[in-house]
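quick one: zinc ion bound model?
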Amino acid sequence: MAGLSLLELRERLGLIKRAEARLAAMKTAALGEYASRGGEGLARRVALEELQASKQQARREVETASQFSQVSETLDALGAGEIPEAHAKQIAKAASLGPVDEAVLVEAARREDFGTFSKTLRDHQHEQSGDDGKSLMAKQRQRRELSFFKSSDDGMFVLNGRFDPVAGSRIEAALADEERRLRNDKDSADQASFNQRLADALENLVCADAEDRKPQGTTLILTANWDALNQKLAGARLLDGTPLPISEALRLACNADVLPAVFDTKGQQLWVGRKYRSATEAQRAALIIRDKHCIGCGRSATWCEVHHIDDWSKGGPTDIDNLVLVCTSCHHNIHDDGWTVHRNPNGAYELQPPPVPYADYPTWKPKPNPPPHDREPFPDTGISTHRPALKQPVLLN
Ligand SMILES: [Zn+2]
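yep, here:
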């Protein structure tokens, strides 16, 4: 490797990607053939022994192989090294859940990175379902499960679950809310890591006494368009872009305060000025709709913190146009490493790194970013404890 130029190293990676795809196709084809001749049970055992897989992996490998046997075009593209394994697996799984147009998906898989492709696939599944995604949602809901058991290794309990997109988003929002509450609670601001606080949040939510259990203040944000021509809602989505059947959106709306967000009027709740340092609940909801995710790295908005573009300590106001959503890691990039907030030509906010010093100097190495949760959240950037009740429509500029 030492003798290769940067260009050659890059080409090497491309070659590895294609080789991995071909190997994956060979593996899945071999396992599929084995299963069709010897049965799935035997195929699982062979995967366990020959691939030295865990029981779970072996089960998944055989399941994947049987899904691939239904999508020949995808398997061919994988075998030719044209699409990555992860993309191909997603197509095979989608095809097992409902109708898909394989040719369209394989073509998208050739061009798109994994995140973009996942969105393309979800939209495609929704369109192809023929019933506004209802059957797809029903199938996903059928696959829900939770396992909770005491590990024989160390006596710790292990929780593992799978939820449909709506249930999952509700749980995520509730956990994120409780995690923020714990973080802002000065008494408990000890050395707990993010993942530890998340475990505490789950315990609190599950084990709260009946009388302590207040109505959940959790905000689950959905967006939809108003089809003025036909006088009805259309294009309902979860925050992460997952399309929802309108019937599902209406069901959720029945049990919720609906906050229409209008992006052209100045509302008092979003311009707090110097009254509170922390973002209000209304501001947070508005930011989540405007920025959609961390403006630096795209991490889910549910877990993001609110950053003052003009520093609060230097007189910056808590006004919606002085606030952006960032994840913990990107928040540290701003405060510790000199990253700055900019607006791109489309009006969206983004983060830019500081200029690289001595980039051409051979011994210079960029400072690696620690993984997101090694860094602790900023303590006072959650929801204000003096938050005004969120009763009126949220108005955004
Ligand atoms: Zn981020």
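The beta strands are 145-150, 157-162, 222-227, 232-238, 305-308, 323-326, 340-343, 349-352.
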